[in-house]
């Protein structure tokens, strides 16, 4: 049967009306389900604190980097420094501070093995971000480790060079020194120097490292894991930390680091048991706009907790807080944790909002952003109301 134009128009009109009625019916059904079906989630009761009850204190501005004023490495520093990051870890040895840099297409980070040897938790500091990471591989010969961050990081990705480091070669390292107002956060340094020795074999608790070079300059533990580059910006080596109290800059060259960096990423060696993993043994500082006296008292509190000096930490609390928070509870709450990036905001009446990052060696949330409202009077903390923690990433 052939349909005429009036018939076709009528059929189309019927379809349009049917669709409109269907949409209206669906809307009414959804409205009734909202009213009579599942209850709308209610906010938590007033007694339950929630993340963001008080806005976290913004971290202090980074200190100006130490960069070459001119020459080929000035431009390299401008481009490549964005691919280097501070790492903080809780480890069996209590080292746990260094530099990591971006390498390869899978978003891996490279660092010195000693900075993460036996790591129970690792935080990568990139700008204002704190990203948890795990050890993907440790190579006992080269002394380097590969890390896997839990979230992608922006910035420069380093590429391998094509030559071996020789004596008198001029190179640059890019790393985060602990010579900073906030040692755990660090300050970016780009240092130019020459290779002074080559072919060394160095012993360390993590292994025996052949073909190590020495580079002119003074070593700082925060520089462990720094990339060493040539004038083209390509990677020629990695700065190692092989001993506590190390003063010289030691560099593993491409002859030992290329294979572990380019080879398949495997599981790290089994971790040795720790009585309690510890964070880096550096000074704990407090930034922010709180009065100097309050920040000094808070630094004593956080520093004592990081050092495991429970009696000293207990002594910073007021008499009332000491009764609520006995030494035994301090140990239970904080043993094995490391607290850094502490910032105290300007006072709101008697209250000060304090933010920090907490690393723990165990549990699903090993890296957490913490905040609390405190009242500080003189050299004592008079009140302490903590918010619920939030994940680092």
Task: Sum up the structure in keywords.
Thrombin, subunit H; 8 helices; Nuclear Transport Factor 2, Chain: A; alpha+beta; globular; six-stranded antiparallel β-barrel; 393 residues; 18 strands
Description:
The strands form 3 sheets. Strands 1-2-3-6-5-4 form a 6-stranded antiparallel barrel. It is α+β, with helices and mostly antiparallel strands. The protein has 2 domains: 72-262, Thrombin, subunit H (Beta Barrel); 286-391, Nuclear Transport Factor 2, Chain: A, CATH 3.10.450. It is built from 8 helices and 18 strands.
State the separation between the terminal residues, measured CA to CA: 67 Å
Give the CATH class of the largest domain: Mainly Beta
Structural class: alpha+beta
User: What is the helical fraction, as a range of percent?
Assistant: 10-25%
Helix run count:
8
Uncertain residue segments: 1-52
Assess the beta-strand content as a share of residues: 25-35%
Order of helices and strands: HHEEEHEEEEEEEEEHEHHHHEEEEE
Tell me, what's the shape? globular
Mean pLDDT: 85
Helix and strand layout, with pairings?
Layout: H1 5-36, H2 72-80, E1 84-90, E2 97-103, E3 108-112, H3 113-116, E4 121-126, E5 129-139, E6 144-149, E7 170-177, E8 187-204, E9 207-218, E10 227-229, E11 235-240, E12 248-253, H4 254-262, E13 286-288, H5 292-307, H6 310-315, H7 319-324, H8 327-334, E14 338-344, E15 351-359, E16 367-377, E17 380-386, E18 390-391
Parallel strand pairs: 13-14
Antiparallel strand pairs: 1-2, 1-4, 2-3, 3-6, 4-5, 5-6, 7-8, 7-10, 8-9, 9-12, 10-11, 11-12, 14-15, 15-16, 16-17, 16-18
């Amino acid at each position: 049967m052939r349909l005429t134009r009036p018939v076709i128009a009528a059929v189309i009109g019927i379809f349009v009306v049917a669709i409109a009625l269907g949409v209206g019916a669906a809307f009414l059904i959804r409205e009734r389900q909202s009213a009579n079906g599942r209850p709308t989630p209610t906010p938590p009761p007033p007694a339950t604190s929630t993340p963001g009850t008080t806005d976290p204190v913004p971290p202090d501005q980074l200190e100006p980097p130490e960069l070459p004023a001119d020459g080929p490495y000035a431009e390299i520093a401008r481009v490549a420094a964005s691919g280097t990051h501070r790492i903080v870890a809780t480890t069996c040895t209590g080292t746990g501070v260094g530099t990591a840099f971006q390498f390869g297409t899978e978003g891996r980070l490279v660092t010195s093995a000693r900075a993460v040897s036996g790591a129970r938790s690792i935080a990568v500091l990139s700008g204002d971000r704190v990203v948890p990471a795990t050890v993907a591989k440790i190579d006992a010969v080269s002394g380097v480790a590969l890390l896997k961050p839990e979230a992608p990081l922006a910035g420069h990705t380093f590429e391998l060079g094509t030559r071996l480091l020789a004596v008198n070669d001029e190179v640059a390292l890019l790393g985060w020194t602990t010579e900073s107002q906030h040692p755990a956060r660090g300050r970016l340094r780009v240092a130019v120097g020459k290779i002074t020795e080559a072919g060394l074999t160095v012993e360390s608790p993590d292994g025996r490292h052949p073909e190590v070079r020495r580079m002119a300059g003074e070593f700082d533990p925060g520089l462990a894991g720094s990339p060493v580059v040539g004038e083209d910006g390509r990677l020629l080596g990695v700065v190692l930390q092989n001993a506590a109290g190390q003063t010289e800059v030691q560099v593993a060259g491409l002859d030992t680091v290329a294979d572990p960096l380019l080879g398949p990423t495997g599981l790290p060696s089994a971790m040795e048991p720790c009585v309690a993993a510890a964070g880096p043994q550096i000074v704990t500082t407090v930034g922010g706009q709180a009065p100097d006296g309050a920040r000094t008292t808070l630094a004593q509190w956080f520093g004592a907790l990081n050092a495991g000096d429970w009696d000293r930490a207990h002594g910073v609390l007021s008499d009332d807080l000491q009764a609520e928070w006995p030494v035994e509870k301090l140990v239970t709450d904080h043993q094995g944790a490391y607290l850094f990036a502490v910032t105290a905001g300007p006072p709101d009446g008697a209250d000060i909002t304090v933010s920090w990052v907490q690393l723990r060696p165990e549990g699903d949330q090993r890296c957490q952003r913490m905040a609390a409202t405190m009242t500080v009077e003189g050299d004592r903390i008079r009140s302490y109301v903590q918010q619920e923690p939030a994940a680092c990433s």
